[in-house]
Amino acid sequence: MEEKTVFDKKSAEEMDEISKTLFAPIYPVIADNIIKTSGIKEGVCIDLGSGQGSLAISIAKKTDLFVYAYDFSGDAIEIAQRNIKNCNLSSQIKTVEGDVHNILFENCFADLIVSRGSMFFWDKPNLAFKEINRILKPGGMAYVGGGFGNKELRDDIVNKMIIKDPKWEEKYKRNMSEEKRKIFAEASSGLQNSKTEIINDDSGFWIVIKKNTLMTM
Ligand code: SAM
User: Fold this and answer.
1) Residue 128 burial (CB < 10 Å; 0-12/13-18/19+)?
2) Do residues 67 and 60 lie in contact, with contact meaning Cβ atoms separated by under 8 Å?
């Protein structure tokens, strides 16, 4: 039986620490990959399961997007608020506490939805992807998944993480397993008015959802 991850103050602080050290170089690279794939640089962006806010911050620094950093952990949100303030980005990034299974935004709200390292913890990925599709604007795109941005960063970080925490390798392999990829690919398929593509390469495993410009009811 898979152990359920607890998102408490300690885990939020640990994620914050690692995001500022070993993981620090991945966020600007992932943000560049997202911007290149989507071509979206203005409008509204939501980072789902944003944790300490690192991806939201990188996206905000590189674009004119107004970014919502969205997470169900009050502890993570508190840390994100501090990090956003320290980067002088409080006027471009707003934090919102909420669950991906019942997203607190109206239909067709977001031009771009991003999420890194969170979907592996969602209880009902089907429901979460339906919600993502619901709040995407026609012509908008979602880029959701996990990874380290490129081969060089992945290899370096995976090697160092295995030394730091031997239990981490097992979790990483499970999250990136063929079985898990199938579950996420299935959960994000057949979304109304959208096309889904899978990126499965050195940058990680990412689900890309593109909402049609013209919607049918
Ligand atoms: N995205 C950040 C990053 O890549 O550094 C943080 C990743 S952290 C491993 C996973 C985050 O997803 C946690 O902050 C957790 O609170 C959040 N999360 C997990 N399940 C969630 C859910 N159902 N709704 C909202 N946030 C969720």
Assistant:
1) buried
2) yes
ipTM associated with this complex? 0.99
Measuring from atom 1 of ligand 1, which residue has the nearest CA?
50
Ligand 1 centroid, distance to 117 Cα (angstroms): 7
Q: How far apart are CA 216 and CA 115, in angstroms?
A: 27
Nearest CA among 130, 147, 146 for reference residue 194: 130
- Give the model confidence (pLDDT) of 53-104 as tens digits: 999 999 999 999 999 999 999 999 999 999 999 999 999 999 999 999 999 9
pLDDT tens string 107-135: 999 999 999 999 999 999 999 999 999 99
pTM (2 decimals)? 0.97
Instruction: Name the residue among 150, 149, 140, 79 with its Cα closest to residue 107.
Output: 140
Residues 197 and 121: their CA atoms lie apart, in Å, by 21
Q: Which residues line ligand 1 (CB under 6 A)?
A: 7, 15, 19, 49-51, 54-55, 71-73, 76, 99-101, 116-118, 121-122
